[in-house]
Amino acid sequence: MDVLVIGSGGREHAICWALAKSPRVRRVYAAPGNPGIATVAQLAPVAANDIQGIVDLADQLRPGMVVVGPEAPLAMGAVDALAARGHAAFGPTRAAARIEWSKAFAKELMMRAGVPTARYEVYEDPEEAQAAASSWGGPVVVKLDGLAAGKGVIVADSPADGVEAVRELAAYSAQAAPGGAAHGAPRFILEEKLEGYEVSVFGISDGRHVVPLVPAQDHKRAYDGDEGPNTGGMGAVAPVPRLSAEEFATIASTVLEPAIRQLADEGIPFVGTLFAGLMITAEGPKVLEFNCRFGDPETQAVLPLMRADFAELVEAACRGGLDGMTVEFERKYSACVVMAASGYPERVVTGQPIVLPDAAALGDDTLLFHAGTALREGQLVTAGGRVLAVTAIGDDLEEARGRAYSAVHRIQFDGAHFRTDIGRAATG
Ligand code: AMP
Ligand code: GLY
């Protein structure tokens, strides 16, 4: 089978790498991909958000399956458009992807399905939202309803900060990107602030059944010790040592399964990866958000631990054949360290030459995934905020961390910055 993967980040590199390893896969195509992806896939110059271009490409390549990586094309209806032309696609329809593109929809769905989440209120009028924030009586989390590329959430520690947060998000939504929060009037969600630690769990679903993958932990802040601005994610580990087997089972039975069942019952079956972002609180796991796709960089930590055939899993999801399926993982740990460009996440500097060690010199337990890289006159250069993701596997997290950082120290580009504490909190 040939597979077409849509996207160009570190996540898509990990997806292409895992598919290319499968004996079921003859050729992997990626659109638009990146220079790292080009080592495991054939690239096609079609942008991820060019839905017509993707459908035309699928018509031409006739892949057995299309895997859509990022949320934007899913929210724009890429899977609907592919299905209308008879292409099997891994990813939710626009209607099912709403679980990510509308936080208010996700919250209402959780209420109907009985999924544990923070107490919340939804406001359409920014002045009413400000009034509610000022009388919230404690820390309040303010969220914009819609895709906002990680910029739609502000955790406010006082009512005054909450009021300011509504003002900031209202201003942001006024100039938001297409397919995002700018669609219709902005809506604001005020939410109780949850305490605990965060975990990401991916559930692979065929629309009715859901198979959870090993849990992962992202590191969202830019600097060591969880300081600095929020980012797309500066690193990840998997599995999460603090999360007990019992808590993990609770996430499957109280979050993933009821959400998938509720969507199916409402006539919008979800096929693809349901990503639960959770807070593990004293009262148990509660959902912070759902995403309709794999996470970045969690995917770069999770897929290298998978012993099962990833292509078989994805194919089974597309065919409606996940009932009773389990996915085997190595009993090992992985650590993924993101190397970011100078200025990330604010004013990113691109075009810096990158020096990489020889692939063979990295060793079997270390993988290098490209995210924001490009080739300029044959020279590999930085081309985005998150440039590379280095994943290493070990028998424990310490070993995985050690291996990942030893590779990171052999990679060079001007202004490179990375966190030095990925997985440190997880190891205690
Ligand atoms: P979200 O996009 O909804 O996951 O929010 C982004 C980040 O904001 C999360 O990863 C959390 O760190 C934080 N966050 C969101 N909602 C809450 C909440 N109810 N309580 C505490 N932190 C939150
Ligand atoms: N790492 C968080 C995300 O992919 O949304």
What does this 3D model show about the protein?
The protein has 428 residues and is an alpha+beta fold. The chain folds into three domains: 2-94, 3-Layer(aba) Sandwich (Rossmann fold); 125-186, 2-Layer Sandwich (Dna Ligase, domain 1); 197-408, 2-Layer Sandwich (D-amino Acid Aminotransferase, Chain A, domain 1). Helix content is 30%, strand content 26%. It has helices spanning 10-20, 51-61, 71-75, 78-84, 94-101, 103-113, 126-134, 159-174, 245-265, 298-302, 310-319, 397-408, 424-427; strands at 2-7, 27-32, 42-43, 65-68, 89-90, 120-123, 140-144, 153-156, 188-192, 197-206, 210-212, 217-218, 221-223, 227-230, 235-238, 271-281, 284-291, 333-340, 366-370, 373-376, 379-382, 386-394. A five-stranded parallel beta sheet has the order 3-2-1-4-5, with helices on both faces. A five-stranded antiparallel beta sheet has the order 12-15-18-22-19. Helix 5 crosses helix 6 and helix 7 runs antiparallel to helix 8. The protein binds adenosine monophosphate and glycine. Residues 218, 233, 291, 295-296, 298 line the site of glycine.
Layout of SSEs?
Blueprint: E1 2-7, H1 10-20, E2 27-32, E3 42-43, H2 51-61, E4 65-68, H3 71-75, H4 78-84, E5 89-90, H5 94-101, H6 103-113, E6 120-123, H7 126-134, E7 140-144, E8 153-156, H8 159-174, E9 188-192, E10 197-206, E11 210-212, E12 217-218, E13 221-223, E14 227-230, E15 235-238, H9 245-265, E16 271-281, E17 284-291, H10 298-302, H11 310-319, E18 333-340, E19 366-370, E20 373-376, E21 379-382, E22 386-394, H12 397-408, H13 424-427
Parallel strand pairs: 1-2, 1-4, 2-3, 4-5
Antiparallel strand pairs: 6-9, 7-8, 7-9, 10-11, 10-16, 12-15, 13-14, 15-18, 16-17, 18-22, 19-22, 20-21
Helix pairs in contact: 5-6, 6-9, 7-8
The protein binds adenosine monophosphate (AMP) and glycine.
Adenosine monophosphate binds next to strand 7, strand 8, strand 9 and strand 17.
